[in-house]
Specification:
Blueprint: H1 5-10, E1 15-17, E2 21-22, E3 41-45, E4 47-49, E5 54-56, E6 61-62, E7 72-79, E8 86-92, E9 96-100, E10 112-117, E11 126-130, E12 133-137, E13 144-146, E14 151-152, E15 155-160, E16 173-174, E17 188-189, H2 196-199, E18 201-207, E19 213-218, E20 226-233, E21 237-239, E22 244-245, E23 259-262, E24 272-274, E25 277-289, E26 296-303, E27 307-308, E28 322-326, E29 335-339, E30 344-345, E31 354-359, E32 363-369, E33 380-387, E34 392-394, E35 399-400, E36 409-412, E37 432-439, E38 448-455, E39 465-471, E40 474-479, E41 485-488, E42 503-506, E43 515-521, E44 524-529, E45 539-543, E46 551-556, E47 567-574, E48 583-591, E49 594-598, E50 603-605, E51 631-635, E52 640-644, E53 657-661, E54 666-670, E55 676-683, E56 691-697, E57 702-704, E58 718-725, E59 730-741, E60 747-754, E61 757-758, E62 762-765, E63 775-786, E64 788-795, E65 803-814
């Protein structure tokens, strides 16, 4: 509690022995020290509140022994849920992402190896995890995805046939569930698997992204001579080159032991629809020989590198806009009829006639439903035409799964990247146009078909990734081509940015300020837009359960934030005293206007006491143009927010580090021996502490925080400066009594200030006065006259701790002077 100046004035010219008060609270820098209420702190450095009491903060220690040569922008730990697997990443200002050891511990040499090279001038990265896959955006690259190591394959099909397999195989035994886990009693049976050329046997494997290796865990192993080959899909099956098969127990004895099959991923892989799902399929087959009579696989996983996300079709056929039938090859010829996509009358269609189909997106196939009366005439699917802006191109790799419209099936063709939308033949729809044309005969009578399409998408159409987060088991992306819109993926499918379960949300109040930060909040989603112009930014809260019910609430149409690292959501934070616990979920963020907090309904400033750092009339105001450098994070070890600000007109990295105590709701400051550009918490590898705190240094080092008594070798100067006055009256500070915790060594330094002028300091020993005592009390005569006196109480010695309990003052006030 502050000393009551009114009480002091009423006791004029009397010796006032103030009640002993605990060290508790924070600094007020927005008001001049001499104007503070008596007993308040004008500065608190490197201290943590104990509620009551204050103690010197722990230090920070280097993790890597060799500096990287540039500073760090963001840090992230990728931790999987289904199994114990962790990766620790550091984004550098040198436009790359490094992976280092996990958990962060002492590393001899540099921090790690480059796993992703960024384009020039990246922004602080946004990181998230969904379905045990990590997503990363940086403002200048397509969002990246990384699945970690040994991720379970999603489809494992063993297909044995009597002829070459069709484009969409119909036969096969599905062992996907049997090969996803560590249960050795479930397995994929490969008994006597033959080669493809003679026996038409193979294995089809599907992953959600392109892979670089397959990791086989065998039950019964192969003992016969056989060598493996692997095809990938790029519109047709293409053989992978330079596959390194580490499963051979002997030469040409594939699947003879546990091991990997690895290769350099090609750059032209695309998704393929098979067995009811769409993904990246691999055809694995024997080039000769066969496997033993008893061979099985208990587990199959894959490895993959950082790679751009792709917009993968969700495998639900889409409806075309319309279908037209023309009576000749000419675009301007008379139109016979316009049909609905699900009831196209193609009775007696001649080889000269064409079925024109308009779609919303480019497609690579049409499913033709022949209904109850398929075509009975002999004919051939002659051609699929694709409109490319000014001319028609003929589709390549055409495969007719309808056998000349005699049965329902897929008509597939290679993707045409030059396809262009058009508005044709007075049709209202601006769409992608295709035609189907048969040859050999006319179709039979009474023939009505339905058509659906298989679209494909180019992620480049959306642009570079600005922000990403996970929400309601969905990936939420912001792209630079539509920077105030959020693309919400299908549930559980971060690469399905399409389909009926996909949503697009518009943030804000109508302005196109780019979204710079997304955070999940309870069951809701928060988006912060960039602050531009006099109107600032916005904070928008999205609620709902599905794309049909998603709605928004604009919480602020002025206050935004800077980047993904300048906002934090704390789930279940303690926000009151230890005797009146209240656990809440709150969001905190940095703005040009201050530091703010919301509970999802009301936005309020929490930075009034340090508002000088956001006052453009003050020299210490945060620096415009360096917003990407600033950060905020939660330190659960002390239940505080840690903040990094770029303060002043010349600073180029964070140089002021406020700390907000969430219980007392007061600010202190850290003066760090090594400045930090970013901060996170990560899982601890051992011990009884679940989380450890890590910071990225401006000097190329990663630091373990809350560790040791020094900042590496730099002593921590910890102190609290208390202001004492009597409403403008002169007074005499006669003496002080101080209680503190005993330490094994060191002294408390006390520096008095008389009307702002520093006076001679004195020390108080922290060692025990009597053996085995744990606390010590010291009374010290001061006899200082003035109308404002300050006491700076602290310790700046290396390897010393400091714990202050309480203080009492003996004051004589003169109200008639």
């Amino acid at each position: 509690m502050p000393i009551n100046p009114y009480q002091l004035a009423e006791q004029a010219r009397k010796n006032i022995k103030t009640d002993t008060i605990p060290f508790r609270g924070g600094a007020v820098t927005a008001i001049e020290a001499e104007q503070l209420e008596s007993g308040r702190y004008s500065d608190v450095q490197n201290m943590r509140n104990m509620h009551p009491g204050m103690k010197k903060r722990p230090g920070q220690q280097r993790i890597n022994s060799t500096a990287e040569g540039s500073s760090y922008t963001t840090l992230f730990e990728f931790s999987k849920g289904k199994k114990t697997e962790r990766h620790f990443f550091a984004q550098k200002t040198a436009s790359c992402v490094l992976e280092g050891g996990v958990p962060p511990a002492s590393i001899t040499g540099s921090f790690g190896t480059i796993v992703f090279t960024e384009a020039a001038n990246p922004k602080p990265g946004a990181w998230t995890i969904i379905t045990d896959k990590m997503l990363f955006t940086n403002g200048v690259d397509t969002p990246q995805i990384y699945p970690g190591i040994e991720t379970p394959i999603e489809k494992f099909i063993v297909c044995k046939d009597a002829a070459p397999h069709p484009l969409l195989p119909e036969k096969g035994l599905d062992y996907s569930l049997e090969t996803m886990d560590d249960d050795t009693s479930t397995k994929a049976v490969l008994n006597s698997l033959g080669d493809y050329d003679n026996d038409y046997d193979c294995i089809y494997i599907m992953s959600p992204i392109p892979v670089k290796s397959l990791n086989w865990t065998m039950g019964n192993v192969n003992s016969l001579n056989a060598s493996i080959s692997i095809n990938y899909w790029n519109g047709s099956w293409i053989s992978l080159t330079s596959v390194v098969d580490n499963t051979s127990a002997a030469a040409s004895c594939t699947l003879g032991k546990n091991g990997s099959m690895a290769w350099s991923p090609p750059t032209d892989e695309i998704t393929k629809y098979m067995y009811g799902v769409n993904g990246f399929w691999y055809q694995i087959y024997l080039k000769g020989g066969s496997l033993s009579g008893l061979v099985d696989v208990t587990k199959l996983t894959y490895d993959a590198s950082f790679q751009p996300i792709q917009n993968v079709w969700d495998a639900v056929p889409v409806n075309p806009i319309v279908a037209n039938i023309w009576s000749s090859h000419s675009l301007n010829a008379s139109k016979i009829t316009t049909e609905a996509f699900d009831a196209i009358n193609i009775t007696s269609l001649t080889p000269d006639d064409k079925i024109y189909i308009a779609t919303i997106d480019p497609v690579e196939g049409f499913y033709v439903n022949m209904g109850a009366t398929p075509n009975s005439h002999v004919l051939t699917m002659k051609d699929v035409g694709i409109f490319c802006g000014s001319t028609w191109s003929t589709a390549s790799n055409l495969v007719d799964g309808t056998a000349g419209l005699t049965k329902s099936g897929w008509i597939h063709f290679r993707r045409h990247t030059s396809v262009q939308p058009a508005q044709m033949s007075n049709m209202l729809n601006y769409a992608y146009w295709y035609y189907l044309q048969t040859s050999g005969n006319s179709t039979s009578s009474n023939l009505v078909v339905g058509v659906q399409a298989q679209p494909f998408f180019n992620i480049v159409d959306l642009g570079k990734g600005l922000a990403v987060c996970a929400w309601k088991d969905r990936a939420c992306y912001v792209f630079d081509k539509t920077p105030n819109y959020i693309h919400v993926s299908e549930t559980g499918q971060p690469l399905h940015i399409n389909g009926s379960d996909y949503a697009i949300l518009k943030a804000g109040d109508g302005r196109s300020n780019k979204i710079v930060c997304l955070k999940g909040f309870y069951n809701e989603l928060m988006s912060w837009q960039e602050e531009k112009g006099v109107d600032g930014g916005t904070l928008t809260l999205f609620e709902g359960y599905s794309p049909d019910t998603f709605g928004k609430l604009v919480l602020s149409n002025r206050v935004g934030t800077f980047s993904s690292k300048s906002a934090v959501v704390i789930d279940g934070v303690l926000t009151s005293t230890r005797t009146d616990d209240q656990v809440r979920t709150l969001a905190f963020w940095i703005s040009h206007y201050g530091i703010f907090m919301t509970d999802g309904r009301v936005v309020q400033s929490i930075s009034d006491d340090i508002q000088n750092y956001f006052d453009p009339t003050q020299s210490e105001c945060i620096r415009f143009g360096y917003e990407d450098k600033m950060w905020i994070g939660y330190d659960s070890a002390f239940n505080v927010l840690r903040v990094g600000l770029v303060s002043g007109s010349s600073a180029t990295s964070c140089n002021v580090f406020p700390v907000y105590d969430l219980v007392d709701r007061k600010w202190t400051f850290d003066s760090l021996g090594q400045a930090l550009n970013c901060y996170i918490e990560v899982e601890a590898g051992s011990g009884n502490v679940p989380f450890i705190q890590v910071g990225g240094g401006a000097d190329g080092y990663i630091y373990r925080l809350n560790s040791g008594q020094n900042d590496v070798t730099t002593a921590i100067n910890a102190y609290a400066r208390m202001e004492i006055n009597a409403q403008g009256n002169d007074f005499m500070l006669k003496d002080m009594k101080l209680r503190h915790k005993v330490q094994t060594a060191g002294n408390i330094s006390v520096i008095p200030y008389q009307n702002g002028v520093e006076k001679a300091s004195f020390t108080i020993p922290m060692t025990a006065e009597n053996t085995s005592e744990t606390i010590r009390r010291m009374r010290k005569t001061i006899d200082m006259l003035g109308n404002n006196v300050a006491l700076k109480i602290g310790n700046a010695s290396a390897s010393n701790d400091l714990i202050l309990y309480d203080i009492g003052l003996n004051i004589e006030v003169f109200d008639d002077r």
